[in-house]
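Final report, closing paragraph on structural work. Over the funding period we assembled a curated collection of sequence-structure pairs, and we close with a single example.
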Amino acid sequence: MNPNDIKTTDVVVSRHIAASPGDVFDAWLDPTSPASMWSDAGQLVFEGTEGSIFYWLVENDGTNWPHFGRFLIVDRTAGRIEHTFMSPFTQGLETSVAITLAASGGGTDFRLVHAGLPDDENGRQHEQGWGHFVERLSTGLAQRTHA
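Its predicted structure, as stored:
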């Protein structure tokens, strides 16, 4: 199948997080933080810097799912992280993930847009997956704040 023939969709996950944009940024990119999506990788190659690549192996129900991409923008001051993203669920498409962080109400408005996903069940399930990781980030930062 020609990737140009695949109908695509975008997934958006937004949440207010009770932590500063700097703390949210740092936790998202820290693979040693339990709040980070990267922390439970079966295998991880990760720097989290502009131009660097990542390889993130996730084990689920006894199956290994490789994910990989390249960081395009990592800008703490602007509250922006953008990277490409490929996995078995993107049908060979190089998709893009853009995260923006904005100070709001004593915390951070977190917005993630995963663009160019196949418009099928696997592509649309990324909304649930990203929702899980954003919830984990929010909960982890809240627990750290109240500890």
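The mean pLDDT is 94. The two ends are 52 Å apart (CA to CA). We thank the funder for supporting this effort.
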